[in-house]
Design a protein that fits this description.
48% of the residues lie in helices and 18% in strands. The chain has 791 residues and is α+β, with helices and mostly antiparallel strands. The strands form five sheets. Strands 1, 2, 3, 4, 5, 6 and 7 form a seven-stranded antiparallel β-sheet that branches. Strands 13-15-16-18-17 form a five-stranded mixed β-sheet, with helices on one face.
C-alpha cells in the first residue's frame, strides 16, 4: 500500500471514528429522549382532554352546594297546620321543582336529586324523565346511596361535597341506559337554629349523575373496567371481547394500578386509572398513541444525520487526501533529496514553507545536505590526493626496489663467485667474501620484508585462489626448512591429524609465506628441543567458520601474556634485548597477520615465559576471492618464499655447453655480475647495453641465441617495448625471453608477461633460481654438486 493510501486511511479513521462512535452512543439516546418527550406531550394532551371532565365534575359539585343551601321546602319549612289538605305545601314543592328544572335544564347528566333528612328518610326526590328530559317529583326512589356513603355525608362540614365511587347497574341498563353507570355527590343540609342561631344538620342532598355517556363524549377513548371488561357494548365491541384479550399484557399493567404505556407490534397506548368504582376497582381509560409524527420526525432526523455524516465523510476524505498528497509529495521530495545527497552527493534545497516546524526541518536538511556535499567534495579531493599519494608511493617503492636490488644483485653474485673460489683466494679474503655475501643477503631480506609490508599497507595485493593439498604443502615447507633446523640442532616435526580436512581453497603462496614466517620465528627463538608443525581440526569457538588449524609449537623462550599483543606490531619485539640477541626487524608476524586477514584467516597465540609458544592459523574451508579483502598482492618472486638462511650453501654447479645467451641490461654492474656466472656454467654470453642493441644483435648476429635475459628498466627503449619488437619478428616469436627486474611488484610481472616474456626473475637474482630457469629453457644441465664449504 502506498504511503498516500496509508495516510488517507489513517486520517479517515481518525476523523470518522469519533463521529461514528458519537453517533452510535448518542443517537439511540436522542431517539429514546424524543420518544419520551413525545409520550409526555401526548400524555399532557390526554390530561388536557380530561381537564374538561374535571371542570364538568366541579360544576356539578357546585350545583350540589347550591341545592344544599336551597333545599326543598320540606326541609326548610314546617308544614302549615291551617292547610289541612296540603295544597299550599304541594304548590311550594311544585314551584321548587320548576326552579330546579330552570337551573338544571342544560345539565341532563344529572338524572336524580334526592333530599334525605337526618333520620335517613327520603324527604323529597326529583327524577329526570327519559322522554321530556325534565325533573319530576318521584315518590318511589330506588337508587338510594349506601349506608356508608350516607353516614359519611351526614358527617361532612357545611359546604363540603363527597363523591362516591362509580356504581354499575346492569339491570337498569336495559330499561334506562342512563342508569347503567352513575356517580353520586352528597352534601349536608345545614340550617340555623332559631333559638341560638347555631348551625343545625337537617339532612343531606344527593345528586346522581349519568357518567355512562362519557364514552360517547370522549371519542377514541377506551373505557375499561379493572377486570378487563369494556364499559358498555355501545363502544362497538363484541360482547365476548375483553381488553385483556385485545391488548395482551394489559392485565399486568392494570395490576400495578398506575399510569402505564402499553406497546406491542409498533402499537402504543396510554392507560390511566380515572375513577374509583364501587365494586370492581378503578375505571381505566385508554387512548392510542399515534406514532406517525414521531416516526416521520425520526426518519427526517435520520436523513439529516445521514446527510450530515455523508457531507462530513466527503469533507474528511477530501481533507485527508489533500493532507496525504502533501505528505506524499514531502516524502517523495525528502526521499529523492536524500537519495541525491547520498548517491550523487549533490547539495539539495528543501523549500518547504508551512508549517513552521516543517520549514525549519527543510532548512536544517538543506544545511545538512550542503554540509554533506561539501564534506563529500572534500573527501573526493582527499581521495584523489590519497590515490596520487599511493601512486607516488607505488612509484617510489618500485624505484627503491630497483635502485636497491640492482647494486645488491652485483654484490650478491660477485661475492658468491668470489666465495666459491676457495683455491684462488687467501683464506682471509675468502672469509671476507663470504661475510660480504651474508651481509648482502641479510640486506636483501630486510629490503624484501619492508617492501612486502609497504605493498600490503598500500593495498597493492591480490588473491590467487586455488585448491590446495594441505599435507603436501606443509610437507614441502617442512623439507625446505628442515636443513636450517638440523644445522641449529633442532628437530622439525610434521604432524597430520587424519580427522582434519586435507584440502581447502585459498591462496597457496600467502599461506606458505605465513607458515614459513611462523617456522622462522620458532627457529630464531628456540635454542634446544623441537618445533612441531601440525595440521588439525579446529575445536574452538570458530570451528564452524574456520574448521582448519595449522599450528607451529616451539620450546623456545616464550612470550609474556602482557606482551603477546606487541609481537604483531611492525618493527616491534618483546623488548630491546630480544632484537639485540636474536636480531630481526620484527616484521615477520606483522606481515603474517596482514596476510592472514587477506585470506580470511585468524591467528591465535598461546605462550608463557620459558614454556615455548604456539602460533595457530585458523583457516576457512573455502576462500571466496570476490567477497574476501580485495587487495593486490604480488605473487612472491622466485626465491622469495624460500628461507633466507643460506649463507653456507655452495654455488650450484652446472654445464650448458654450446648454449648461447643474450644478456641485456643497461647497468654494467649487472652485466659484470651475471656474465661470469653464466660463463662458469659453459654458456656463451653476449652482452647488450640497450634494447636497440639487443634487437640489432638478435636480427643481425650470425649465430643463433638459445635464450634472452632481458632487464625491464632501461632508458630509451625499456624491456617491454623491446619484448614487443622481438615478438613482432617472425623468426624470434618462439625465442625464450626471461625478464630480469629489480621492480618486484605484481603489476610489473604482469606487464612483462603480457608483452611476451616467458618467465620472470626478480633482482637480486639467486643462482638457484637462475639455474632452474636455465634448466627449463636450455635443457637439464650436467651437474656435479659441490659439497658445502666450511664456514
Amino acid at each position: 500500500m502506498k504511503l498516500r493510501s496509508q495516510i488517507s486511511l489513517i486520517l479517515l479513521l481518525l476523523g470518522l471514528t469519533p463521529l461514528l462512535v458519537a453517533l452510535a452512543i448518542n443517537l439511540p439516546l436522542v431517539f429514546e429522549k424524543l420518544e419520551s418527550f413525545y409520550h409526555e406531550a401526548y400524555l399532557e394532551k390526554l390530561r388536557t382532554d380530561f381537564h374538561d371532565l374535571d371542570q364538568h365534575i366541579t360544576r356539578r359539585q357546585e350545583m350540589v352546594r347550591l341545592f344544599a343551601k336551597l333545599p326543598e321546602p320540606g326541609i326548610a319549612l314546617e308544614p302549615d297546620s291551617e292547610d289541612s289538605s296540603g295544597n299550599r305545601f304541594m304548590r311550594t314543592r311544585a314551584a321548587y321543582t320548576e326552579w330546579a328544572n330552570r337551573v338544571l335544564f342544560d345539565q341532563l347528566d344529572i338524572i336524580q336529586v334526592i333530599f334525605i333528612n337526618r333520620n335517613g328518610e327520603v324527604s323529597f326526590s326529583l327524577d329526570r324523565d327519559r322522554k321530556t328530559g325534565l325533573l319530576k317529583s318521584d315518590n318511589h326512589v330506588t337508587d338510594l346511596p349506601s349506608t356508608e356513603f350516607l353516614t359519611a355525608g351526614l358527617k361532612l362540614a357545611p359546604g363540603a361535597v363527597l363523591t362516591s365511587p362509580i356504581s354499575f347497574n346492569r339491570q337498569r341498563d336495559s330499561a334506562d341506559p342512563s342508569r347503567f353507570m352513575t356517580l353520586s355527590f352528597i352534601s349536608p343540609l345545614i340550617t340555623t337554629s332559631e333559638e341560638d342561631g347555631s348551625p343545625e344538620l337537617q339532612g343531606v342532598v344527593v345528586f346522581n349523575l349519568d357518567v355512562g355517556g362519557l364514552a360517547q363524549i370522549y371519542n377514541g377513548i377506551y373505557w375499561v373496567q379493572n377486570n378487563g371488561e369494556y364499559l358498555s357494548d355501545r363502544q362497538d365491541m363484541t360482547p365476548t371481547s375483553t381488553a385483556f384479550r385485545d391488548f395482551p399484557g394489559l392485565e399486568q399493567l392494570f395490576a400495578k394500578g398506575e399510569l402505564a404505556l402499553w406497546e406491542l407490534g409498533g402499537q402504543q397506548m396510554f392507560w390511566l386509572p380515572l375513577f374509583i368504582t364501587q365494586d370492581t376497582g378503578p375505571l381505566w381509560v385508554g387512548r392510542s398513541v399515534d406514532p406517525s409524527p414521531l416516526t416521520e420526525f425520526v426518519k427526517t432526523l435520520e436523513l439529516r444525520v445521514i446527510s450530515i455524516v455523508t457531507v462530513l465523510v466527503l469533507v474528511i476524505v477530501v481533507v485527508a487526501r489533500a493532507i496525504a498528497l502533501r505528505m506524499e509529495r514531502i516524502s517523495h521530495e525528502l526521499t529523492e533529496g536524500i537519495t541525491e545527497v547520498l548517491e550523487q552527493e549533490h547539495s539539495v534545497n528543501f523549500s518547504w514553507q508551512r508549517p513552521e516546524e516543517l520549514r525549519k526541518l527543510g532548512e536544517n536538511l538543506t544545511r545538512l545536505a550542503q554540509c554533506h556535499a561539501q564534506d563529500a567534495q572534500a573527501l573526493r579531493e582527499h581521495a584523489r590526493e590519497l590515490e596520487a599519494s599511493n601512486r607516488y608511493k607505488s612509484e617510489f617503492l618500485a624505484n627503491v626496489s630497483h635502485e636497491l636490488r640492482t647494486p645488491l644483485n652485483s654484490i650478491l653474485l660477485l661475492s658468491k663467485l668470489l666465495a666459491d673460489k676457495a683455491d684462488a683466494l687467501p683464506p682471509d679474503q675468502l672469509q671476507q667474501a663470504r661475510v660480504i655475501h651474508a651481509a648482502g643477503r641479510d640486506l636483501r631480506t630486510l629490503i624484501d620484508t619492508i617492501l612486502d609490508l609497504s605493498r600490503i599497507e598500500a593495498g597493492k595485493t591480490r588473491l590467487n585462489t586455488e585448491t590446495l593439498d594441505l599435507p603436501a604443502l606443509l610437507g614441502d615447507v617442512t623439507e625446505i626448512m628442515r636443513p636450517q633446523f638440523e644445522e641449529k640442532g633442532l628437530q622439525l616435526e610434521l604432524v597430520i591429524d587424519n580427522k582434519a580436512p586435507a584440502t581447502l581453497v585459498s591462496d597457496g603462496e600467502k599461506l606458505r609465506q605465513i607458515i614459513v614466517n611462523f617456522l622462522s620465528n620458532a627457529l630464531k627463538f628456540t635454542e634446544q628441543g623441537k618445533v612441531t608443525l601440525q595440521l588439525s581440526r579446529n575445536s574452538g569457538d570458530q570451528a564452524d567458520s574456520h574448521p582448519l588449524a595449522v599450528s607451529v609449537h616451539d620450546s623456545g623462550i616464550g612470550i609474556p601474556a602482557e606482551k603477546q599483543a606487541l609481537v604483531f606490531e611492525a618493527f616491534n619485539q618483546v623488548d630491546g634485548s630480544t632484537s639485540r640477541r636474536y636480531g630481526g626487524t620484527g616484521l615477520g608476524l606483522t606481515i603474517s597477520r596482514e596476510l592472514a586477514t587477506l585470506i580470511d584467516a585468524r591467528i591465535e597465540v598461546k605462550s608463557d615465559t620459558g614454556s615455548g609458544s604456539t602460533f595457530t592459523l585458523l583457516l576457512p574451508p573455502v576462500l571466496d576471492a570476490d567477497t574476501a579483502h580485495e587487495h593486490k598482492l604480488p605473487a612472491i618472486p622466485h626465491g622469495e618464499a624460500r628461507p633466507d638462511n643460506e649463507q653456507d650453501t655452495a654455488l650450484p654447479d652446472a654445464h650448458y655447453p654450446g648454449k648461447r645467451v643474450l644478456l641485456v641490461d643497461d647497468d654494467i654492474r649487472n652485466l659484470l655480475a651475471l656474465s661470469p656466472l653464466l660463463e662458469r656454467w659453459d654458456i656463451s654470453v653476449l652482452a647488450a647495453g640497450s634494447g636497440a642493441e639487443a634487437l640489432e644483435s638478435l636480427l643481425h648476429d650470425d649465430e643463433h641465441f638459445d635464450l634472452v635475459l632481458l632487464d625491464l628498466m632501461m632508458p630509451d627503449m625499456d624491456g617491454c617495448e623491446t619484448l614487443r619488437r622481438i615478438r613482432a619478428e617472425t623468426a624470434l616469436q618462439h625465442l625464450p625471453v626471461v625478464v630480469l627486474t629489480a621492480r618486484a611488484a605484481a603489476e610489473d610481472r604482469d606487464m612483462a608477461l603480457a608483452a611476451g616474456a616467458d618467465d620472470y626473475l626478480s633482482k637480486p637474482v639467486e643462482a638457484l633460481d637462475l639455474k632452474r630457469v636455465l634448466d627449463h629453457y636450455l635443457g637439464m644441465a650436467d651437474t656435479n654438486d659441490l659439497s658445502q664449504e666450511p664456514s
